[in-house]
Structures are given as C-alpha cells and as structure tokens.
Amino acid sequence: MGQEAPEPRKPLKVSMQIMAARLLTTVTPQSPAMPKCFDRMVTLDVVVREDGTVASIKVIGGLEEFRESAIEAVRQWTYKPYMEDEKPTAVETTVLVFYPNVGPAGSLFVPDGKGGSKGGKFLPLPSECGPPIQIKKAQ
C-alpha cells in the first residue's frame, strides 16, 4: 500500500501586533494623491511563509486606488520566522497599511525595539484640518 503525503498545514493565525514586532524589512508604499485633511488605510490578509517571506495577500478593505500600492509594498516585506514547537511555521495575519495625509505611508504597527510592537511614526494632520479627534473612555 502506498503512503499518502500528509496534508499541508493551514497557516497559524497570529495577531497583527505580534507579527509587526517580527518585521525585519519593509518597503514604503507609493501614496496616490489624496484630498487634504484625509488619511487612508488598506487592510490586508497576509500569509507569511516559514522563512518569513510573504506568500499571499488578500485585500480585506480600503479604497481601490490605494490597494495596489499596498499589495506591491507588503509583498516585499520580510519577517523574522514565527516559531511553534521550535519549528518555523507559516502564519496568517492582518496588515494595516496607513496612508497619512502628511508623510510617508507604512505599517500602522512597527517593532518597538524591545520585542513588541507600537504604532508607527505618523505626523498629525495639519492644524488647518481642525482639532484632533478626542477619544473618551466609556463611563
């Protein structure tokens, strides 16, 4: 009797913050022209291979004119391989590509240099765009 090849394992789902902490290299997306005082974001579902390279990308959301530049950039990103049981493992994660009105586009989360992740360094909207949004905690 012949032996059947084992079924390939589905990628392990890992949070975007954990994978952002594992980013080794990123490519800055090209930013299409944007109206003043508006930021944009593209949300991607990304599968990362065992070696840390991007295997596949699926758009989850974001304006059409920003999607291709996000895909082209993220396709070139590399990650420190994710380990499970001391073996490199393919993972599926979400990537948020932020297109600020001021400054270069990039990952909404980046490594913090301490093994974790933090929000990217994006400039606030210019003062002529009005006061920044205030987020209040629910009582």
Automatic annotation (TrEMBL):
Alphabetically, which GO biological process terms does the record hold? transmembrane transport
The record, for Pfam families, names: TonB_C
What the entry lists under SUPFAM superfamilies is as follows: TolA/TonB C-terminal domain (SSF74653)
InterPro entries attached here? Answer: TonB_C
Q: Where is the TonB C-terminal domain?
A: 42-95
Gene3D superfamilies the record matches? 3.30.1150.10
User: Can you name this protein?
Assistant: TonB family protein
Species the sequence originates in? Tunturiibacter gelidiferens
**Source lineage:** Bacteria, Pseudomonadati, Acidobacteriota, Terriglobia, Terriglobales
